[in-house]
Amino acid sequence: MDAMNTHAHAGDDAHKHHDHAKIAGLKQINLALQGGGAHGAFTWGVLDRLAEEPRIGFDGISATSAGAMNAAVFAYGLSQGGREGAKKALANFWRRVSHAAAFGPLQPTALDRLFGNKSLENSPAFIFFDMLSRVLSPYQFNPLNYNPLRDVLAECVDFEKLRKTCCPVRLFLSATNVRTGKVRVFGNDEINVDAVLASACLPFLFQAVEIDGDPYWDGGYMGNPCIYPLIYECQSTDVLIVHINPLERKHMPHTAAEILNRINEISFNSSLMREMRAISFVTRLIDSGEIKSNMKRMLIHSIAANEVMNELGHTSKLNADWEFLVNLRDSGRAHADAWIRENFDRLGKESTVDIRGTYL
After folding, report:
1. Is residue 72 exposed (0-12), middle (13-18) or buried (19+ Cβ within 10 Å)?
2. Per-residue H/E/C for the chain
3. Residue 112: CB partners within 8 Å, gap ≥ 6?
4. Tens-level pLDDT at each residue, the chain (360 residues)
5. Which of 20, 213, 260, 349 has its CA 20 to 30 A from that of 325?
6. pTM score, two decimals?
7. How many whole angstroms separate alpha carbon 114 and alpha carbon 283?
8. Regarding beta strands 214-218 and 238-242, do their DSSP bridges make them parallel or antiparallel, or are they unpaired?
């Protein structure tokens, strides 16, 4: 809860923004964006379509890892150029991600490209790197702590402007404190390139990101993403979760890599499941009349593409090939469009996902 105190002073701006949105007749929603490497391009597509929807406004965004990158870029674009600015900023960011990866060794083989395989299991560079990362830490195989995403983020987002200008959406980016094991949530006035990279710091790939003397790893270990900031710090009761990590998989993992990937998916979803249990419990108490207070009844919604993600190999999270990213973006746009058509009228009235059936 200490992390929440850092955002209290921004409450007045949030109320002003919310009141303005109500006057404009928008339906305000909060966004909860998961992480998942290159699969975050799916979230790009979701945000791209939502930005085109004039009937939907944005109150707060809680995000982790690739979701944190999408959130920071989206918010910066909104603050500088409105909805069209947000769309252009996201497209520019993912194009730069692809360009940066094009000069790296982690590429699909020619045969994989021919047969449309988006995973990297057959890439000699990936096989070597995967073996290397199992015996050496990032402090050993990457002593200079090079991260190409640092330059990409710095080129796409003027973080000083993002902090100082009146951002139209409240941001909550999660990272995991390595020493304490607790989550830290970075608010608008704290967000810089280090905060975003901390949220996306996978410990087997990158050295911990140090902020204010504390080391941080990927926020997914403690919140993928955190929902509680949206409950306590935002006025909208609607939370739209954009899923990247499948909650369920039909097929049992058998290889070492598949088992490790599934362990990571379960771990990264566990904090979200815990928060959904709490929301479900409070909702039942409110609906049954057992508690009579000013407690908010949260309305939960979700956009997921399990049929897409379940078919992608885990190594495709490191594949930033432009064609692959665009395909994920288009899938995200299509799923968001279908969600809007099916559920817009239910916003502000009821959850459009069965919380108990989906998360419990």
Report:
1. buried
2. CHHHHCCHHHHHHHHHHHHHHHHHCCEEEEEEECCCHHHHHHHHHHHHHHHCCCCEEEEEEEEECHHHHHHHHHHHHHHHHHHHHHHHHHHHHHHHHHHHHHCCCCCCCHHHHHHCCCCCCCCHHHHHHHHHHHHCCHHHHCCCCCCHHHHHHHHHCCHHHHHHCCCCCEEEEEEEECCCCCEEEECHHHCCHHHHHHHCCCCCCCCCEEECCEEEEEHHHCCCCCCHHHHHHCCCCEEEEECCCCCCCCCCCCCHHHHHHHHHHHHHHHHHHHHHHHHHHHHHHHHHCCCCCCCCCCEEEEECCHHHHCCCCHHHHHCCCHHHHHHHHHHHHHHHHHHHHHHHHHCCCCCCCCHHHHHC
3. 118, 119, 120, 122, 123
4. 333 333 333 344 444 444 444 445 689 999 999 999 999 999 999 999 999 999 999 999 999 999 999 999 999 999 999 999 999 999 999 999 999 988 776 777 666 676 676 777 777 777 777 788 888 999 999 999 999 999 999 999 999 999 988 889 999 999 999 999 999 999 999 999 999 999 999 999 999 999 999 999 999 999 889 999 999 999 999 999 999 988 888 888 888 878 888 888 888 888 898 999 999 988 888 888 887 667 788 999 999 988 888 888 778 888 999 999 999 999 999 999 999 999 999 999 999 999 888 887
5. 260
6. 0.88
7. 50
8. unpaired
Token couple for 248: 């369920």
Tokens 């970075």, residue located: 186
**Residues 38, 320: contact at Cβ < 8 Å?**
yes
Phi-psi region of 212 (alpha: psi -120 to 50; beta: other; left: phi over 0): left
